[in-house]
Design brief:
heterodimer; A: about 250 residues; mainly alpha; two-stranded antiparallel ribbon; 2 strands; disordered C terminus; B: about 1150 residues; alpha+beta; eight-stranded mixed sheet
């Protein structure tokens, strides 16, 4: 039920992924497996997906290299050769007898690429550039920010600000920040000059200072976002397991 | 005396009957934390010459009082604001007496009150016809320090957006803190409650919400509540805030309220409540008495659960989501407790303080029945055992808890609680711990009564009480019937004897009218020739807190042929009891052995004594005596008991006993229990800790991996890689609790060098490292917290403790690992906080352990930052506990001052209370100890705290008294310099005596007589004014002339109708009759020049006369004092007694 409620992009991704899973399963059946662990199928799917993506990516760069916008067959052949694939064997493999026909992925709407997240104010054109030229990109793409402890500290502050305001920062950057901040902290660098980080009294390991909350019970009682996510995941994974057990043997047996 | 009274029905101590009260709060200002409103009491005089009405009121500023629309004069006099007025008198004994006297001077149960209203003379004729009076009082409250608690988060937005709220709170009858009333559990009336609040706010109060009306500007609305069931003012409550509202989906008459954003938690938490309702209604065969029930969850709660008429106020911290395991049973218990008190405590109220035990007992007892049904018999028996152990330990420590104190007219000589440092005459003078234990004992005694008369009869008695009360409550116009809603000890006992036909008087005498528990020592020998078990049971009834037990005692003997119960008669001089055995010693090995529950099991009998058929023996297995048993039997018997006795209490006893027998056989028995899945999980958890202790005692002979490790590996780790724990799956709660406990117990293991084995430490660190909760339906915060506890448990004292500056490099590598883990957890908590911050709490505790063991320098700075206002309360408590510990270990004056200033200034009452509590339990020094902390300034500070600084919170004041007692004892603190006057001249007897303030403890321990016999001016003067109405009366007669000036003075004051009842001025007024005069005798400087000399003179005279009286009494025989005891009652029943010194003058 929750899947239909997802964004079109999610649905699109999911449908492709499903098809790939079916492909992998049928390949496995072909290779003589009777059953496969979910994790193994997942790994193989992941591999096949990255392989296909890589083909697409290189083909695109070959085509762009020759100043074209549409990749041609030769681009793909070059790519395959480059990746160490014996192109000659491909036609024969395609005509093999045990080959299974897989239905095309259901037609879903091509997701609308979301507008890139704008950060900061784009610089206006200087007078010597005509107006019809594209705008400057977002400042963060060309502004230089040398990495220093202070930055990490600041990004940590930003993260906390987000949390405090109950804004929902993209979970990915949040995770990144955690992974960046924590190793640095545990490596025992000297953070004592930073106002927000307090060193343990014994000046050994820096500890983030305790900041009082205005409403302390909220953070203490409500499940954190991560936990909520987990809850959903465990719920949906239970569903997945159900659907998978329904689905997989079906494909295997065909 | 009380019994007699009960037989005749309830006699009000007041010369009038209250029938209806209106409370109207027009305005609540969250910014200024103020409240404005009025009350209107409808009273019927019961005596013709009623000319003064005494009501309770504290903190309130009273603007205007009108009686039947006529302006009335009033005096506001609260002696509890400042208990003692003499600076140098700093012994606790004196304080406690003075405090008890002050409390009884305003005790509504004695017909007293802080607010005394003079009935306008125009109405006297009206009163003589016993016609109705309406007393209308306008009042306001400004920044209340107790009674009403405001929570106003400091952030942007209006009050509703901020989640600001206010609620009533307090210990026992504390309603007088927020509106004038008769603050007694025995004065019932119907109520109309009106609250005008911001439109975004919700006001929750008792009774039915009749309507909510918007004001003209639509910015505010008024909530009108009606409570038609007669209710005591002490059971009235209020909560106002921007609550989210949830109507219970199972019972529409129940509504739940919580603070913004918590609705999902509220839904989950209260989803169980209807089952509790059904349970109580079924066993009591009685409908829930009120037409609705409201639960409100608020922040900064005074207590976790507070029950009021048709409404309960809970701490918001009880809310939890479906992912939390540990909190769920705790919260459900709180809900069930609150509901039990709705029936007994709110609906049925009590006649007097000495009947409190009946209410607490019954509500605790039915709550126990609910526990048994919900959590099973094992949990119930475990709980009973736990409560029993607690009460036994407390009584042995302090010398007894008395459930039903009977006071003989206020003569302290008969004080039944002379072993205590506080008076048990009033709920407000009780130490909090004592009160907790009192409740515990009350429900245990109810259980004993049940054992005696059977549960069926017990429930019939409850049903009878309830049906009487509900009949009475429906008599809207016959207020004299309402006393049926009050329970008294005698009434309760009478119902029991009517229903069951059994005489339980001996039981009541033993456990209710008398304090103390029983202490048994048992040992046995088996006489092979006679095939008789010779059991010896000794009693210790001389130590404090014990009493002698005479009567039946059950002993269960498990023999080879089965289990047999024997009832022994414990008598004065018989110690030995011969019990014939049923089985011959050794017999056919093939046969199974029958157990008590009928089960038959195979046992390996090789361990037992070949000559004796005894497997194990238990004394009082049903816990039908409040006792402590120390029984001696050999180790194999304990092992059999652990393995095969099916009662969890027996198993737990066996585990505790096995600690003394570190043998391979004990080890085996414990590991077997640990592995047995049918075994109760608490027993298994206990076995873990015992196993760790045994392993440490056996360290030189221990073979195999560290205790419990292989077991843990087998149960919770991957098969292929034993060091990696499986992904968490807490679906099975028993194994969850075991998984949590085992590492904690394992960390207590020590090797031959008394260090935690490296293997164990690494194992625990691996558990942390590989902990994976992604697939789990439940949160693992408690589990992770316990893993940190385990790390803390593994810490042993540092080898060299010197003052070198420690850095990461010269730290012990193991400790470094632990420290890194703690730091990581602590930092993670900031980003991804856990439920109730359990992990931070454990981290703080662990850091304190590292400090104490000398691994890292002791420093309270970190803890102090976590103890600040604004952190979650659990975190604050943990941090404060560390600071308290630091104060003790490092003897830091600065930290002690910091703690004490927090006691005075912290916004959260619970924290203030808790600091005092922790300081009392872990004191920086005690009375017999020399400490640099113990100095005069500290004495002064604490004295001030309990004398005047805590007048707004009974619980806090009693906490301060407890701390003062722990630090300095009962007599004058030893660090004080000797008073200038070593000798005191006794003017009356013309002789000199040693100043009582410097009499050493040993003498002072004989307590009150020291004070009274020395005729010390203050104490005598004090009691004169407060406690002894009889003498007041006499003095009035004697000194009519003298009192004229005094009276004139007061009349003057009364003539000003709108005397502000503000605290300060109240204090001043208070000074006149109470303090000024007593002060004048011995105080060196006469600072009371405000008043006329005449006035002083008058009081001086009092004192002399008083001394004489007092002195006489002292030398009179007991017979005489008994007569005296009766007197006050005679007076208190007559209308005249309601007047004190001033009364004749007022009517003149």
């Amino acid at each position: 039920g929750s899947k239909q409620a997802g964004t079109p992009a999610d649905n699109y991704q999911l449908a492709r992924r499903r098809t790939l899973q079916v492909v992998v399963s049928s390949l496995l059946t072909e290779a003589g497996f009777e059953s496969a662990e979910k994790a193994a199928v997942e790994t193989l799917t992941e591999m096949i997906q990255s392989y296909i993506s890589e083909i697409g990516r290189s083909a695109k760069s070959y085509c762009e290299h020759t100043a074209r916008t549409q990749p041609t067959l030769s681009d793909i052949v070059v790519t395959l050769v480059e990746m160490g694939f014996n192109v000659e064997t491909l036609p024969a493999y395609a005509k093999r007898s045990q080959r299974m026909v897989i239905t095309a992925p259901p037609v879903t709407n091509q997701p609308v690429t979301p507008k890139a997240l704008t950060a900061g104010q784009n610089k206006p054109h200087p007078p010597h550039i005509p107006g019809h030229f594209p705008e400057f990109p977002d400042p963060h793409t060309y502004i230089k920010t040398p990495v220093s402890e202070n930055n990490i500290f600041i990004s940590f502050l930003i993260l906390r600000k987000c949390k405090e305001k109950e804004m929902h920062p993209n979970p990915e950057p949040a995770k990144c920040l955690i992974s960046v901040t924590l190793p640095l902290i545990s490596e025992g660098r000297n953070f004592s000059q930073l106002p927000d980080l307090l060193c343990l009294p014994f000046s050994l390991l820096p500890v983030i200072a305790a900041r009082p909350f205005t409403v302390p019970y909220l953070t203490a009682l409500l499940p954190s976002e991560l936990e909520m996510q987990q809850m959903e995941e465990t719920d949906s994974s239970e569903q997945d397991e159900q659907t998978d057990t329904e689905n997989l043997p079906l494909h295997m047996s065909t | 005396m009380n019994r007699k009274k009960g037989d005749k029905g309830f006699e009000s101590p007041r010369p009038y009957k209250l029938t209806h009260q209106v409370v109207c709060i027009n305005n609540i200002n969250f910014q200024r934390k103020s409240v404005v409103g009025y009350v209107e009491l409808t009273i019927f005089p019961t005596v013709a010459n009623l000319n003064r009405i005494k009501l309770n009121s504290k903190q309130c500023r009273i603007y205007r009082v009108r009686v039947n629309d006529l302006e009335a004069a009033f005096i506001y006099n609260d002696p509890t604001l400042e208990v003692c007025h003499h600076e140098s008198k700093q012994n606790l004994n004196y304080f406690s007496n003075a405090y008890a006297a002050a409390v009884s001077a305003v005790d509504p149960d004695a017909g007293n009150g802080e607010l005394c209203i003079k009935v306008p003379s125009e109405l006297w004729k009206h009163v003589d016809e016993l016609k109705v009076l309406k007393v209308h009082i306008n009042f306001s409250l400004d920044q209340p320090k107790g009674g009403l608690h405001f929570v106003v988060p400091d952030m942007e937005g209006n009050m509703a957006e901020r989640g600001a709220h206010v609620f009533s709170c307090g210990y026992q009858n504390s309603t007088r803190f927020w509106f004038p009333c008769v603050d007694s559990y025995s004065e019932l009336c119907t109520w109309k409650l009106e609250y005008t609040v911001d439109a975004a706010m919700v006001a929750v109060s008792n009774g039915d919400l009749v309507e909510t009306v918007y004001t003209h500007d639509m910015r505010k609305k008024t909530f009108h509540y009606m409570l038609t069931i007669p209710t005591a003012a002490s059971n009235i409550s209020l909560a106002i805030g921007p609550f989210e509202i949830l109507v219970d989906p199972y019972m529409h008459e129940v509504t739940h309220f919580c603070l913004p954003q918590l609705l999902p938690l509220l839904k989950h938490t209260t989803s169980y409540l209807h089952e509790v309702f059904e349970f109580y209604e079924e066993i009591l065969t009685c409908r829930y008495p009120y037409s609705c029930f409201k639960t409100v969850f608020i922040d900064e709660a005074y207590v976790e659960v507070a029950a009021y008429a048709s409404m309960s106020i809970f701490s918001t911290n009880l809310l939890h989501s479906a992912m939390i395991i540990d909190e769920t049973p705790l919260t459900r218990r709180c809900l069930a407790q609150a509901l039990a008190q709705q029936f007994f405590g709110c609906f049925i109220s009590r006649m007097s303080w000495s009947d409190e035990w009946v209410l607490k007992g019954i509500s605790g007892y039915i709550y126990g029945l609910w526990m048994k049904k919900t959590f099973g018999v094992n949990e119930y028996r475990h709980w009973i055992k736990q409560e029993l152990d607690q009460i036994v330990a407390y009584e042995l420590k302090t010398g007894g808890v008395l459930l039903h104190p009977i006071f003989g007219g206020g003569k302290e000589k008969d004080n039944p609680a002379s072993h205590l440092h506080f008076s048990i005459k009033h709920p407000h003078t009780l130490s909090w711990e004592y009160y907790t234990m009192f409740q515990c004992k009350a429900h245990l005694v109810m259980r004993l009564i049940e054992n005696r008369i059977s549960m069926e009869f017990m429930l019939q008695v409850f049903n009878k009480l309830l049906s009487l009360a509900s009949t009475a409550s429906s008599q809207k116009f016959q207020s004299h019937m309402w006393s049926q809603m009050l329970v008294s000890t005698s009434g309760f006992l009478k119902s029991i004897s009517n229903v069951s036909g059994k005489d339980i008087q001996p039981l009541i005498k033993q456990w209710v009218d008398q304090s103390g528990v029983v202490k048994f020592y048992g040992s046995f020998a088996f006489n092979r020739k006679r095939n008789v078990l010779e059991l010896e049971i000794k009693q210790d009834y001389t130590s404090p807190g014990t009493q002698k037990y005479v009567g039946p005692l059950k002993v269960t003997v498990q023999e080879l042929d089965g289990s047999f119960n024997h009832t022994l008669q414990i008598e004065e001089n018989s110690l030995k009891h011969d019990i014939p055995c049923h089985s011959k010693s050794r017999r056919n090995k093939k046969k199974k052995i029958p157990l008590m529950n009928g089960e038959e099991v195979d046992m390996d009998l090789s361990a037992m004594d070949a000559d004796s058929p005894l497997l194990w023996i238990r004394i009082d297995p049903d816990m039908s005596v409040l006792r402590k048993v120390e029984f001696e039997q050999s180790d194999f018997m304990w092992q059999y008991q652990l393995r095969y006795e099916r009662d969890v209490v027996a198993q737990e006893e066996a585990i505790l006993a096995l600690e003394k027998f570190p043998t391979p056989a004990s080890r085996l028995a414990l590991t077997d229990i640990l592995e047995q899945e049918q075994c109760f999980y608490r027993v298994r958890m206990l076995a873990c800790f015992c196993l760790a202790k045994i392993a440490n005692s056996m360290v030189s002979t221990w073979t195999g991996p560290p205790a419990m490790k292989s077991l843990f590996t087998r149960m919770f780790c991957c098969k292929t890689c034993p060091n990696i724990v499986k992904t968490n799956n807490f679906m099975n709660f028993q194994s969850y609790f075991l998984q949590k406990t085992m590492p904690v117990a394992m960390a207590l293991l020590r090797d031959v060098h008394n260090l935690c084995p490296k293997e164990v430490l690494m194992f625990i660190l691996d558990l942390i490292k590989y902990n994976d909760n992604r697939k789990n339906k439940f949160s693992d915060n408690y589990y992770r917290a316990e893993l940190i506890d385990a790390l803390a448990n593994s810490v042993t004292p540092a080898v060299s403790v010197n003052n070198e500056v420690r850095t990461l490099d010269n730290l012990n590598p193991d400790v470094r690992l632990i420290l890194e883990e703690i730091t990581r957890f602590l930092n993670m908590e900031k980003l991804l906080p856990s439920y109730r911050h359990t992990i931070t709490v454990s981290c703080l505790k662990a850091i304190r352990v590292l400090q104490k063991n000398g691994h890292v320098p002791s420093d309270p700075a970190l803890f102090k930052s976590y103890a600040e206002y604004g952190h979650f309360v659990d975190v604050r408590i943990a941090a404060l506990e560390a600071v308290v510990d630091y104060t003790k270990v490092d003897r830091s004056y600065e930290e002690l001052q910091w703690l004490l200033s927090m006691v005075q200034n912290d916004p959260v009452p619970y924290i203030r209370h808790k600091i005092l509590d922790m300081l009392t339990k872990n004191p920086p020094f005690t009375k017999n100890m020399d400490s640099p902390l113990c100095n005069e300034a500290l004495v002064d500070q604490l004295w001030k705290l309990m004398n005047s600084g805590t007048s707004h919170d009974w619980r806090l004041r009693c906490g301060a008294v407890d701390l003062y007692f722990t630090l300095f004892g009962l007599s004058r603190p030893s660090c004080l310099p000797l008073p200038e006057l070593g000798l005191v001249l006794n003017l009356k007897e013309k002789k000199a005596v040693l100043n009582p303030t410097i009499i050493p403890e040993s003498v002072a321990n004989n307590q009150e007589p020291v004070i009274s016999s020395n005729n010390h001016g203050q104490s005598v003067g004090f009691q004169n004014t407060f406690s002894n109405s009889q003498e007041e009366e006499e003095i009035d007669m004697d000194t009519v002339h003298d009192s004229q000036a005094f009276i004139y003075h007061h009349l003057n004051m009364l003539e000003r109708p709108s005397t502000p009842g503000k605290e300060q001025s109240a204090g001043e007024i208070n000074m006149h009759p109470v303090s000024a005069a007593p002060l004048s005798v011995f105080s060196k400087e006469s600072n009371s020049s405000k008043h006329s000399d005449h006035h002083h003179h008058h009081h001086h005279e009092h004192k002399k006369k008083k001394k004489k009286h007092k002195h006489k009494h002292k030398h009179k025989h007991k017979h005489d004092t008994k007569e005296k005891e009766k007197d006050p009652f005679v007076f208190s029943n007559s209308p005249a007694s309601a007047r004190s010194i001033r009364s004749p003058s007022l009517s003149d």
